[in-house]
Amino acid sequence: MNTLNRRSLLGLGMAIAALPGLTVTAANAQDADVAKLMVPPPLGDMVLGSPDAKVTIVEYASATCPHCAHFHNVTYPKLKTEYIDSGKAKFIFREFPFDDLALAAFMLARCAPEDKYFPMIEVLYEQQEKWTHNNPRDELFKIAKLAGFTEDSFNACLKNTTVAKGIIDERNRAEKEFKVDSTPTFFINGKELRGAEPIEKFREMIDAALAAS
Q1: SS3 of 186, please?
Q2: pLDDT tens-digit series, residues 1-34
Q3: Which of 108, 109, 151, 174 shows a CA-CA span of 20 to 30 A to 45?
Q4: Is residue 1 one of the residues assigned to a domain?
């Protein structure tokens, strides 16, 4: 099977159908109301870094987005070392799937033990070219097994409508309230940054936010 079959693999015909198609528009940067931005999604926020950090970085990303993979594989390690691990910033990752395959990948990350979530996201981006082609179901299962999934728990997760709905609801909220329409989209203390910008751009914005705090 070279592509995911929505009903046979996920068993979520109605939930998957609720996902809008990929749309990328040339919208202007739009800062977010920080109080609204900090409201956790239905499934809770996945956070790295000190809760007392003066800067909060929120990323909206799709698992199948190559620009997101570039950010996570190239820029994110430097960002993590310089700002997250040092306690200067905390990082919140929010799922914004553009297709059913991205939704399936994010569902598996959400079903994994909490301490396996970010490691699984890292592997999904490191191996994106592999699992988005060449029999996605089997490749996703190989990744899921690294997080302790069995075939039964893998299949059960992909049929979990609560997890699917939670991800989709947050995607829709980001689109409606914060005008997210492309990935990756970041908010740094509410200031919007679109695209897989180099580390220098993140340093500029984070250092400005630190100076202002």
Answers
A1: strand
A2: 333 444 434 443 334 444 444 344 444 557 989 9
A3: 151
A4: no
Q: Is residue 177 part of a domain?
A: yes
| Stated pTM of the model | 0.88
pLDDT in tens, 92-141: 999 999 999 999 999 999 999 999 999 999 999 999 999 998 899 999 99
CB 91 within 8 A of CB 49: yes
Q: How far apart are CA 182 and CA 104, in angstroms?
A: 19
Assess if residue 141 is contained within a domain: yes
Domain count, the chain: 1
CATH code for the domain of 29: 3.40.30.10
Whole domain around residue 23: which residue ranges? 6-212
SS3 readout for 145-167:
HHCCCCHHHHHHHHCCHHHHHHH
Single-letter code of the amino acid located at 70: H
CB atoms under 10 Å from CB of 195, counted, come to 14
